[in-house]
Automatic annotation (TrEMBL):
Pfam families (alphabetical): NT5C (PF06941)
Residues forming the catalytic site: D8, D10
Organism, scientific name: Flavobacterium supellecticarium
Transmembrane segments: none
Family: Belongs to the 5'(3')-deoxyribonucleotidase family.
InterPro entries assigned to the protein according to its UniProt record, in alphabetical order: 5'(3')-deoxyribonucleotidase, HAD-like_sf, HAD_sf
Protein name in UniProt: 5'(3')-deoxyribonucleotidase
Length: 172
């Protein structure tokens, strides 16, 4: 029986920081640097982050994380793979996220997509996420995908990965 692998979307498959940087630059002419973001949340870093995140189409047009498509294709063959997103926090994102996955990860079946409110109800063997709040309760193996908001602090029992190449080295 294959192990169940759960993969987050925002900050893991989709580059939400790149999108926020671009939105803020287009609107305010401010170009944030990743170095200045370390240790701060998206809301603390970007003046209008919530406005951007709640806008129509924000999640539909997120850039894809480098290397994620090919590694996910391989992981899909080896694991019982599910995309798990706490999308209910941003209701406008539901359709956007579905069509984004369909466009960039067409090898995934719609039955492999879980949109939820809290990830505490999700069970599996391995979880890849960029938020401690989703990994800390998880009973299985956890991979913390590096993002500016999780750069400081103790990773606890989580294995930090900085790229999809790191994920491949561990899981393939």
């Amino acid at each position: 029986m294959k192990q169940r692998l759960l993969v987050d979307m925002d900050g893991v498959l989709a580059d939400i920081y790149a999108q926020l940087i671009e939105f803020e630059y287009q609107e305010l002419g401010i170009r944030q640097s990743y170095e200045k973001m370390n240790g701060t949340s998206e809301v603390d870093t970007f003046k209008n982050a919530l406005e951007y995140i709640f806008s129509d189409g924000f999640f539909r047009n997120l850039p894809v994380m480098e290397g994620s498509i090919e590694v996910m294709r391989q992981l899909n063959e080896k694991y019982e793979l599910f995309i798990v997103s706490a999308a209910m926090e941003f209701p406008k994102s539901l359709t956007d996220k579905f069509y984004w996955l369909e466009e960039h990860f067409p090898f995934l079946h719609w039955k492999q997509i879980v949109m939820c409110g809290s990830k505490t109800v999700i069970k599996g063997d391995i979880m890849i996420d960029d938020h401690f709040k989703n990994l800390d309760y998880f009973d299985g193996k956890t991979l913390l995908f590096s993002q500016p908001h999780n750069s400081s602090g103790n990773t606890k029992n989580h294995t930090r990965v900085d790229s999809w190449s790191d994920v491949a080295k561990i899981l393939l």
